[in-house]
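Q: How would the structure tokens look for this protein?
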Amino acid sequence: MDRPENLLALADRCEGTAKPDRALDADIYEALGYNVRRKPKHLVSRNAPMGGIYQQGELWKALGAVSANIDVAARLLRQKAPGWSWSLQCVAGDEEAGFQALVAECSGNGAIGSLALCAAMLRAFARSDLACRAGALLKQK
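A: Here is the predicted structure in token form.
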């Protein structure tokens, strides 16, 4: 798992974008501890996006569209933190609609539901990592 600062910066990226992004998908998978292979930059074009595959155990699998698909985001969350609860709601205002997610008491907002869930999930992992580090420091003393 990535450092808490990196997870929080990635959560901010999820909240700051208005649409899904394959580079963001790859960064999320890497931050959560997966080994991601990306296409070399000279092979990436409009017709052939960066895509990517990730390693899970011995197998290589296609990189899921975690920033675009709520089912992929929820499956990733259940895989990495099976005991955590989460919720997602649509928040509609006069000017625009958005989404707000809550994962293990950490919130995230997004233009689409999957981005909101990713932001909240990344914040929850950052908080749990900080708590683990603080506990380890207390045990050392």
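Helices lie at 4-16, 22-31, 70-80, 113-140.

DSSP finds four helices and six strands in the chain.

Upvote if useful.
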